[in-house]
Amino acid sequence: MLTLRHKGQGLVEYAFILMLVAVVVVVVVALLGPVVGNMYSQIVVQI
């Protein structure tokens, strides 16, 4: 039988996983943002 404490623990674990995913996404976008922007600019110039 799950108690309220165990349900809260599961929610906290899901929150930590969600925060980790959000941090990874922000880092990837920060690192790859300029590269993607430059590629887009080159494509526009060639068109």
Structural class: mainly alpha
Please report the number of helical segments: 1
**Quaternary organisation of the protein chains:** single chain
* Residue windows where pLDDT falls under 50 for at least 5 positions: none
Run of helices and strands: H
Percentage of residues in DSSP E strands: under 5%
Estimated radius of gyration: 20 Å
The main β sheet shows up as: none
Rounded mean pLDDT score = 85
Shape by Cα distribution: rod-shaped
Beta-strand segment tally: 0
Terminal Cα span = 64 Å
Q: Share of helix among residues?
A: over 70%
Tell me what the structure shows.
- It is rod-shaped and about 60 Å long.
- It is mainly α and 47 residues long.
- The mean pLDDT is 85.
- It has one helix at 4-46.
Short key terms for the protein model shown above:
single chain, 47 residues, mainly alpha, 1 helix, 0% strand
Secondary-structure topology with pairs:
Layout: H1 4-46
Quick take:
It is built from one helix and no strands. With 47 residues, it is an all-alpha fold.
